[in-house]
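User: Hey, quick favor. My workstation is busy. Could you predict this chain's structure for me?
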Amino acid sequence: QVQLVESGGGLVQPGGSLRLACVASGVTFITYAMRWYRQAPGKERELVAAIMGPRGTITYTDSVKDRFTISRDNAKNTVYLQMNSLRPEDTAVYYCNAQPILGARHYWGQGTQVTVSS
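Assistant: No problem, here it is.
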C-alpha cells in the first residue's frame, strides 16, 4: 500500500522560507518520479516542481524558478521542497505526488497548508 505523508507547512511572512517534506512508504522509491503540486482556493491544482528518478531531470513552473528547490533523499524515501522568498501568491495546499517512472498511476498525499501573510 502506497502512502505519502507531507509535513512542513505553516504560516510564514512574505520573504520567509519553509521546507516541505514528503515521506513515501510502500514503494521502491528510486523507481518513482516525485512531484509537488499546489492548489489555491478557487484555482486548479498546478504542478510546482518535479524530479524524475533517483538522479533525474528537475523541472519547475516559471513562477517558482530561482526560489524553490526540489530534492530527494533516496535512502530516506523522502522528497523535499525548499521554498525561499515566499510570496502571498504562494499560499495554497501543497500536495506530494508519486508516479512509477514506467507506469501511469499517480499517488497523492493528504496535502499540507502553506500560508504566506503578514
